[in-house]
Amino acid sequence: MTIQEETQSFIKVPQHIAIIMDGNGRWATARGLHRLAGHNAGAENLRTIIQAGVDFGIQYLTFYAFSTENWSRPKGEVEGLMQILTDVIDQEAAELHQQGARLIHIGKLEGLPPTLQEKIRNAVELTKGNGRITIVLALNYGGRDEIVHAVQRMLKDQIDPEKVDQALLSDYMFTAGIPDPDLVIRTSGEQRTSNFLTWQTVYSEWYFPTVYWPDFNKEELAKAIEEFGNRNRRFGGLSEA
Ligand code: IPE
Ligand code: IPE
Ligand code: MG
User: Quick one: pLDDT at residue 3?
Assistant: First the structure.
């Protein structure tokens, strides 16, 4: 099937899909493996879903990789995750660049291990001119933390309170310039936001497949887009228009 044929078979394609990649640990435990094996499988799956996103004509794909709350996990798991994320960015940066993908990071970079920070900065710099798809990596990200950070920066910039509106606040978020997600997918059957894109998802459509993240493949993504096509987004009005 060509890209065009695939895209045409959908009623409508979301411009921005954001994914809470959940269930790596349970995926591993169900196989008698260590939780980190699940995180490895989950990281592998990023490549599959980015390629699928490109094939389906998605313009923005956001991945929630590590939350501000995930620091409370056992030290070994946190360290393992940081290593996996460092390796995945190291290995995939050139490939992303070749695909015409731009990488953006949201969250607090400063809190991450220095090597990971450097890999992210380099990958962002390398891919900044690309426009085929934008991959947004939420790493050391929290929605409430983002709002606090935005308020702090606005105060530092001595913004006139009268000038504060929703558009200005959006510009102070980590996601400045990125359209709000049309569709948020959380794998593994959990149905909560876990501090993800608090400001940006007020009118997103939510979709909760029960598969664990490592098993969420191109077909699953297609199902999510199909479901999205059947949703009627009214934004408080009476019809989709
Ligand atoms: C998601 O998988 C990945 C991260 C939060 C880093 P989990 O590690 O939360 O997997 P479960 O929910 O324990 O199965
Ligand atoms: C959300 O998953 C964070 C990421 C997927 C990165 P968690 O597994 O951390 O969320 P809770 O703890 O179940 O809410
Ligand atoms: Mg989880």
Answer: 56
In this structure, the chain runs to a length of 241
The answer to whether 195 is a known catalytic residue is no
- Nearest-angstrom CA–CA distance, 241 and 35: 45
What pLDDT, on the 0 to 100 scale, is given for residue 240?
83
Q: Does the model's pTM come out above 0.90? A: yes
Give the number of the atom of ligand 2 that is nearest the alpha carbon of residue 69. 9
Backbone phi and psi for residue 106, each to the nearest 5 degrees, phi listed first: -125, 145
pLDDT in tens, 143-175: 999 999 999 999 999 999 999 999 999 999 999
Q: Which residues place a Cβ less than 5 A from the ion ligand 3?
A: 22
* Nearest atom of ligand 1 to the alpha carbon of 65: 6
Distance (Å, whole) CA 75 – CA 89: 21
Which residues of the chain are modeled with pLDDT < 50?
none
Collapsing DSSP to helix, strand or coil, 80 comes out as helix
Annotated active-site residue 70? The verdict is: yes
| Domains in the chain: ranges and CATH | 13-143+180-225 (3.40.1180.10)
